[in-house]
Write a structure and sequence with these properties.
Rossmann fold, Cyclophilin, 14 helices, 26% helix, elongated, binds flavin mononucleotide
Length: 504
């Protein structure tokens, strides 16, 4: 363990709270109040498996319960491997028999949690979020930090400002969805274990002892952030994202690293350009993503190279089994959007569920990334949560489609909830069937290069089923599943067609 520095701040006034921690060894069992899709689920599991914190005898973890100074010192003391503290009984309110006696001594020895001038430890005082940040920051050796301000930055106590900056830039404690840090709110048990789980990822923090095998716990909510980055723009973003998501990180490393000459795209013959110009190019990866099967959601990051993902991303997607996984693409670029890059990758993993991707600038702020993650609502629904699906009956065949996640697709689902709708469609341009929905839906137009199977809304009231590519300003409505482009062409036939849509 690294030596701990003394932090010269005094925690808040004592407020007596009943201490209600009933020991109940969970041994990795699930807790009734921990949703598998919750952002803190893995951290809770990790902390329980390692015996850092116990649940309650009624099967709950007590996710929303605010942690007291005694409880926090006990959790951190266990995580540190229960080192011996100086033997004296130095606090007037810490009984010789208290379970947290050594922990309080250890926390005070290291300056993590100081006692009060009147000789008390104030065992039952709640710990606030800014205190939690400050304690972990102390434990990390009080590193210099600076960062973006929270909306309520002015409410953060002076002693905790650097700690909160450090916490934000290292993804230790998440801010609130409204952009506040809420420094005076009590730190909940879920927040404490999440923060500790993140802390352990930092250099030095990784020295926290773990019960062998506990980090291998297969957990349906596990998220992997996989990325390729040639000049570390995407790498920085991926690190940030992994911190926010409490996810594991995997770097796709080329077997043959890219030199700056390889990346010099002004030279038409440079390696990167040659690869991008060759659809069959599959640059080899050094090593492989182990335990891919453990993850149900993969955030996939890459730089934009000539409007597309580097070919090594194709190597990655083709080398693993992504069936049933949710894939969330993200990218960095000089200025281009994510464009059709994710659409071109999707065809490599027909059985994966791709979510809408996002492009960031290399210097995207923590707040921008957090905002995006919050907008995905992973905690509530899990990235793998099923979107509403459609049935499309056409020429005696039923095909399935998944609805896009936007207000237009939602409006279509609401329309179909009233009952199936038959649309007379005509063939247009050798690429699509188009017909009136009989209703105007909200539009979310963007310039799209379509692929076979795309469902789109044209001019707000026309449904389009694409069986070939077209670039136009359209609103995505969904994607047909489980049929190839040729099968779709065959099903749709060459001329006019009557199509019935219904919710599954
Ligand atoms: C071969 C090559 C092609 C690129 N093409 C584009 C492009 O089409 N549009 C763009 O905005 N940026 C382009 N860029 C810039 C990168 O997308 C940008 O610098 C990115 O953030 C680099 O990410 P990285 O550091 O993770 O590799 C290109 C860079 C390279 C090396």
């Amino acid at each position: 363990m690294k030596p701990m520095k003394i932090c010269g701040y005094v925690l808040a006034l004592c407020m007596a709270l009943p201490l209600a921690l009933t020991a109940f060894a969970a041994d990795g069992a699930s807790f009734s109040d921990v949703d598998a899709g919750a952002s803190y689920a893995r951290a809770v599991r990790w902390a329980a498996d390692n015996g850092y914190v116990n649940g309650y005898s009624d099967g709950r973890f007590g996710v929303d319960e605010v942690v007291t100074r005694a409880q926090l010192s006990a959790i951190f003391h266990r995580a540190a491997g229960s080192p011996a503290a100086s033997g004296e009984l130095r606090f007037s309110d810490v009984a010789a028999t208290a379970y947290y006696r050594s922990a309080a001594g250890w926390a005070a020895d290291g300056g993590l949690i100081n006692g009060y001038a009147d000789g008390r430890f104030c065992v039952n005082d709640p710990v606030t979020r800014q205190q939690l940040a400050a304690i972990l920051w102390c434990w990390a050796g009080s590193p210099a930090a600076s960062g973006e301000d929270y909306a309520d930055e002015a409410d953060i106590a002076a002693y905790a400002r650097t700690a909160v900056d450090w916490s934000r830039s290292n993804g230790i404690l998440s801010g609130r969805a409204d952009g506040r840090f809420a420094p005076a709110d009590g730190a909940t048990r879920a927040e404490v274990v999440s923060a500790l789980y993140q802390y352990r990822r930092l250099p030095g923090g990784s020295e926290l002892p773990e019960v062998p095998g506990s980090s291998d716990v297969s957990d349906s909510s596990r998220i992997l952030v996989a990325y390729f980055s040639a000049t570390n723009q995407t790498g920085n973003l991926a690190n940030r994202l992994a911190g926010i998501l409490h996810a594991d990180l995997y770097e796709i490393i080329p077997a043959q690293p890219y030199t700056s000459a390889d990346l010099n795209y002004t030279d038409s013959g440079c390696r990167a350009n040659r690869e991008q110009n060759d659809p069959a190019a599959r640059p080899a990866i050094a090593g492989s993503a182990e335990n891919l099967a453990d993850y149900d959601t993969v955030f996939l990051g890459y730089p934009i190279w000539h409007g597309q993902a580097p070919r090594i991303i194709c190597t990655f997607l083709e080398s693993g089994d992504f069936a049933g996984k949710s894939i969330v693409p993200f990218c960095t670029s000089g200025s281009s959007g994510i464009g059709s890059s994710a659409d071109h990758l999707q065809v490599l993993t027909p059985d994966a569920h791709w979510l809408e991707g996002r492009r960031f600038s290399g210097g995207a702020s923590q707040g921008t990334v957090e905002e995006w993650v919050n907008s995905l609502k992973l905690a509530e629904s899990g990235a793998a949560a099923e979107e509403e699906t459609l049935e499309i009956q056409v020429n005696g065949t039923t095909i399935a489609a998944r609805l896009a996640k936007n207000s237009s697709a939602q409006a279509l689902a609401e329309l179909l909830a009233e009952g199936p709708r038959t649309i007379e469609m005509r063939d247009y341009g050798g690429m699509e069937k188009v017909g009136p929905l009989g209703q105007t839906l909200p539009t979310n137009n963007e310039r799209i290069t379509t692929q076979a199977g795309d469902l789109a809304l044209y001019q707000g009231n026309q449904l389009v089923i694409y069986y070939a590519a077209n670039t136009w300003s359209l609103t995505r409505l969904g994607k047909i599943q489980g049929v190839t482009a040729q099968e779709l062409r065959d099903i749709l036939g060459g001329g006019d067609v009557s199509v019935t849509l219904s919710l599954r």
